[in-house]
Hints:
The chain is mostly helical.
Amino acid sequence: xxxxxxxxxxxxxxxxxxxxxxxxxxxxxxxxxxxxxxxxxxxxxxxxxxxxxxxxxxxxxxxxxxxxxxxxxxxxxxxxxxxxxxxxxxxxxxxxxxxxxxxxxxxxxxxxxxxxxxxxxxxxxxxxxxxxxxxxxxxxxxxxxxxxxxxxxxxxxxxxxxxxxxxxxxxxxxxxxxxxxxxxxxxxxxxxxxxxxxxxxxxxxxxxxxxxxxxxxxxxxxxxxxxxxxxxxxxxxxxxxxxxxxxxxxxxxxxxxxxxxxxxxxxxxxxxxxxxxxxxxxxxxxxxxxxxxxxxxxxxxxxxxxxxxxxxxxxxxxxxxxxxxxxxxxxxxxxxxxxxxxxxxxxxxxxxxxxxxxxxxxxxxxxxxxxxxxxxxxxxxxxxxxxxxxxxxxxxxxxxxxxxxxxxxxxxxxxxxxxxxxxxxxxxxxxxxxxxxxxxxxxxxxxxxxxxxxxxxxxxxxxxxxxxxxxxxxxxxxxxxxxxxxxxxxxx
Length: 492
């Protein structure tokens, strides 16, 4: 292996690495704020142009394309990011593997589309899948370009492409929806966005892969990706089993209300966790040989995530009716109770998702896989039990499960790692107390509010939320130190 064939790794000292991580996190979160606004606005507009039933049939199709998407990557992008040393030829081989897989998956979706339509008893699902399948072909061409940008911590370029493609794609899709006012606008939107993303990623990362060559030493990369893929397959059923079960046993209309409530609930959470995942896994991977720094870094990270997300989710649950009616409109009133229950289910999800970074960054993908099998099996069981009482019963089962699994998951994920179970409890202890204080203040206001304006009610609630959050942040010196320690450490 020649030295000049190696792709440059981020072999900085810890302070330099931390500064890049901080910069990357700042860029990604800033970009996600813009993306949140775009997606929030798009959801609000589309909900007023397209019926719940149309949303439901698209959700049926997406439950299948979402599963197929797991195979598009095969965990090979994470392998490129996590590997200590990797050559240009190895990444080139991975590119061709991803591209071929994207093509084969497109054919697979086309082939199974009639059977999926028969399963859900909705003929339009077949046509939706035929068009949606081409997004897999497009997506397979961007995977290694993205991975190289993440490996080199070029987060600004990634964020720019992500924001621009989603903004332009959403605008084009809204224009289409204004003309046709049916599910095709929803079907075309991800295809348009992925095509724009492909164009943008090639512009900012004009890397041309070499021809595929045997004996490039990619076996370890594929083994890493294999475990990540199997974990993704299993986790898929945990994330999408609810949609499949509702679509099969209850119908498109109920699935439409449920899927929009779920998307609305996950929107603010996803805008924080998704960008941090792209930054923190590369950073933690570089710290895997420094257990004390790994542990300290992760503790402060969890404290920050908990303080940002737990009060927000609790407050959104309290304002469930107002949020649904303002964003989706009066036609979506059946989503209100679902949204509130799902906020309870989502309360711990930012922490649960973040702790998964420990095993991924340490390369312990087999342990991650074992947990995925247990978690998905139990969660799907809760869905089948809950659906006996309809979509509300399934949502309640979802919420109960995530609260019961919390401590067992914390115990499992910290075993044989630099992080201890006590570290996680210490990190979330103060944010939980402050979540109770902040959400109680908002609840008291909404309870005694007598006005008729929903928008004014939400605006005042936001002000109360922010004032409480800022007061706590500046008054609690210990909490402030924990949260700012990441930044302060980076500056030293």
